[in-house]
Amino acid sequence: MTDKITKSKEEWQKQLSPEQYHVTREKGTERAFTGVYWNNKKPGVYRCIGCGEPLFESDTKFESGTGWPSFTKPMPGGNVETEEDRTFGMRRVEVHCKKCGAHLGHVFDDGPGPEGQRYCINSCSLNFEERGEEKK
To answer: Measuring CA to CA, which of 29, 35, 61, 77 is 20 to 30 A from 67?
Structure first.
């Protein structure tokens, strides 16, 4: 991974839609069942909307019933970081892009598989590249 990306508020607002900006830069959340990828079943890679870093593989995506794209784990390479989030009187674990700091969603310990994790990610924080269109 290359150096971290730092941009001004104005630069991010110019690059992102208002909803993308709110979610990724202000730690917002899109409404359940409204995002473009919550029900996507195509094979490919989910990349950060802010910087294009690869974050999740489609083969780790599963139907959680929550209305947001859910993944069992991030891609190898360390492009996803977590930190404790104590907003709204709750204790959660925030997920963000290591390169640009974009807020992606949260990770919970109620997922399938051996790790038992569910990365609950906002669609608008992602770009999807269908297999065959990926950057090499």
So the answer is: 77
Catalytic residue among 48, 51, 97, 120: 120
Helix boundaries (H) for the chain: 9-15, 18-26
Query: Within the chain, how many helices (H) and strands (E) appear?
Result: 2, 9
To 5 degrees, how large is the angle CA 50–CA 60–CA 83?
A: 50
Task: Supply the pLDDT for residue 92.
Answer: 79
5 phi and psi, to 5 degrees? -95, 130
33: its two tokens: 């069942």
User: pLDDT by residue (tens digit) across 33-73?
Assistant: 999 999 999 999 999 999 999 999 999 999 999 999 999 99
> Phi, psi at residue 59, to the nearest 5°?
-75, -5
